[in-house]
């Protein structure tokens, strides 16, 4: 079972795993049809709907992707952030008590502070915005369930039939010869969504428990990531203007360093996490297939 199945990560997970097993995709408002996936509507903030969902389908695993990820909206409306990022997890954990169902909680690198180090799972979390705080509350609830695993991650991707991803919008602008901007002072360790999907599968296969950073082996700024994408697609990277996070009047403060130490998950899975450059090459190859 995959919640948020009409979203960026959830739809990729559903499309990948439908060839391996029966997939139940859960969506709240926006239905997308994925061949071979049973899509079910539910409001996860309503406990009775969650109970009915779990009792009806009794999945072996539940991957919880559903979330309000708009950082500025979370800052404007903390109550809505709680309703979409905390309350559903509370309901899911309550419903899964006493059942042999593995919970995978998709967390975020937004739980970390801006300290200039590669963040480890053992450090004290100190989110700089309401989105990170709400996700951290959800993460702690998820980990209260025996056997659960939480993956702190961030990813780049293509979009869905409902919405273009940020990166697709940038690529479209560059293809039209339009200038775009990218932060050159905010760093993260993003995975390509297709790599993340496979890593989640390995996490399930190994039955990992607890919290893990799931990210690239190296860090990159949004500006450098966009430049790598442009070059991989034969577009003019000179159209990308480097800017500071501080130059924009954003409602929520942004974390300038959310790079992660991924040694723990590398050891647990027995593999080296991929570098950004190699994942950008895969992204560009896949993008050309559908462009």
Summarize it.
The chain has 291 residues and is α/β, with parallel strands linked by helices. The protein has one domain: NAD(P)-binding Rossmann-like Domain (Rossmann fold, 3-Layer(aba) Sandwich).
Give a structural overview:
- This protein has 291 residues and is of the alpha/beta class.
- 40% of the residues lie in helices and 15% in strands.
- The chain contains 11 helices and 13 strands.
- The protein has helices spanning 8-17, 47-57, 71-76, 78-85, 87-96, 130-143, 166-175, 193-206, 222-232, 263-269, 276-290, and strands spanning 2-3, 24-27, 38-41, 61-64, 102-106, 149-153, 155-156, 180-183, 187-188, 191-192, 210-214, 220-221, 240-243.
- The strands form 4 sheets. A 7-stranded parallel beta sheet has the order 3-2-1-4-5-6-11, sandwiched between helices.
- Helix 4 (78-85) packs parallel to helix 6 (130-143), helix 5 (87-96) packs parallel to helix 6 (130-143) and helix 9 (222-232) crosses helix 11.
Q: Would you spell out the secondary-structure blueprint of this structure?
A:
Layout: E1 2-3, H1 8-17, E2 24-27, E3 38-41, H2 47-57, E4 61-64, H3 71-76, H4 78-85, H5 87-96, E5 102-106, H6 130-143, E6 149-153, E7 155-156, H7 166-175, E8 180-183, E9 187-188, E10 191-192, H8 193-206, E11 210-214, E12 220-221, H9 222-232, E13 240-243, H10 263-269, H11 276-290
Parallel strand pairs: 1-2, 1-4, 2-3, 4-5, 5-6, 6-11, 7-10, 8-13
Antiparallel strand pairs: 9-12
Helix pairs in contact: 2-5, 4-6, 5-6, 9-11
């Amino acid at each position: 079972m995959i919640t948020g199945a009409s979203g960026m990560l959830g739809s990729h997970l559903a499309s990948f795993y439908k060839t391996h097993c029966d997939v139940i995709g859960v969506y709240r408002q926006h239905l997308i049809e994925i061949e071979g996936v049973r899509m079910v509507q539910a409001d996860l903030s309503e406990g009775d709907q969650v109970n009915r969902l779990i009792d009806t389908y009794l999945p072996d695993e539940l991957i919880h992707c559903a979330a309000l990820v708009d950082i500025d909206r979370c800052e404007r409306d903390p109550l809505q952030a709680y309703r979409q990022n905390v309350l559903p997890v509370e309901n899911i954990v309550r419903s899964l008590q006493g059942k042999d169902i593995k919970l995978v909680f998709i967390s975020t690198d937004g739980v970390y502070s801006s300290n200039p180090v590669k963040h480890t799972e053992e450090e004290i979390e100190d989110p700089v915005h309401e989105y990170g705080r709400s996700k951290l509350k959800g993460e702690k609830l998820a980990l209260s369930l025996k056997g659960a695993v939480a993956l702190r991650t961030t990813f780049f991707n293509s979009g869905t039939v409902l919405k273009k991803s940020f990166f697709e919008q940038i690529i479209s602008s560059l293809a039209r010869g339009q200038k775009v901007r990218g932060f050159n002072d905010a760093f993260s360790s993003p995975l390509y969504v297709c790599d993340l999907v496979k890593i989640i599968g390995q996490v399930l296969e190994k039955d990992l428990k607890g919290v893990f950073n799931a990210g690239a082996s190296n860090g990159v700024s949004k500006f450098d990531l966009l430049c790598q994408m442009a070059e991989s697609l034969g577009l003019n990277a000179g159209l990308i203007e480097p800017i500071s996070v501080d130059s924009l009047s954003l409602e929520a403060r942004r974390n300038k360093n959310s790079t992660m130490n991924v040694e723990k998950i590398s050891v647990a899975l027995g593999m080296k996490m991929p570098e950004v450059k190699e994942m950008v090459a895969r992204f560009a190859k896949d993008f050309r297939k559908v462009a």
